[in-house]
Specification:
This protein has two domains: about 250 residues, CorA soluble domain-like (Beta Polymerase, domain 2), CATH 3.30.460.20; about 60 residues, no CATH class. Strands 1-2-3-7-6-5-4 form a seven-stranded mixed beta sheet. The chain has nine helices and seven strands. A hairpin with a 2-residue loop joins strand 5 and strand 6. It is about 60% helix and about 15% strand. With about 325 residues, the protein is of the alpha+beta class. The longest helix has about 70 residues.
Amino acid sequence: MTNSYKQISKNIQQVTINNPKTENKLIWLNICDAGKEEVKYLRKKYDFKLSHLQASLAKTIAQRATVEQCDDYLFIILHFPIFHNDDIIPAEIEFFISHGLLITIHNNNIPPLNDFLNTCKKESDTILTYKHESSAVLLYEILEKLLLNCYVLLDNNSIAINKSEETIFAQKQKEAVSQILSLRHNIINLRKIIQNHKNIIEKLIQMKSSIVPTKQIKEYYNKLVEHSKNIWEILENQKETVEALNNTNESLLNYRISDIMKTLTIISVIVFPLTLFAAIFGMNTMNGMPFINTTNGFWIIIAGMTICSLAMLLFFEKKKWL
């Protein structure tokens, strides 16, 4: 086995996969935070379209996934989810694929891509690409690692969903609102990122190009399509579950608000006649006002107010409003 790794510049890494049983060799260039120097390097060494190179600049963010077939290479833009400050955000990767060459350009730290790169540097004979020495197979393995990482994020969502459910039924509605909002945000982002993957992979399979996988290797790409479908189905289930939890939490919140409003209404209804009593006996009409000049007038009025309050409470209890 002959395998070599080279750090061409601060942002460019090169791995050469060379199986001694074959006459070919495969070069993988991994570029992070591509700037003018990286674009200049690629223009000097390869015949790529300027528009594709400009789309690969670190400050340029594509709004959608795409695949374009050129004479000598394929250009693909895909987005994959990564965690950033407890949120799921899209990480963009540009792929340039030709015979014996694969170039990946990205702006974010993407753990599954970095892990696979380290495997290729140290143990390239353990990967499928070593057997075929095909850029299409290398692309398949990279895409597989990135899609498998989606399952990890989905598992994290499932854990968060269970935690939110426990929070809701522990009567911690305010805390649950925050958790549900975070979950909905992550699921929406995941859906936006993943939704085009199946179509892009199917386009790759259907393309008539010598770069696109042969019939033997198309089986691998069909696995990627299955992964995309499974991820989408899980996302659909998680979306429905979170919506159900949100509805449950809103119902509990509405119940609590209704209960509070009922209590406040009952207090207001009880206090109103007492306030009326106090206002009447507080009038400056001393002559003719009952109980004013009696020895126990104050206590008689208080007793009357108490009896009125108890009567109203008994009435509410009879009506089952309490």
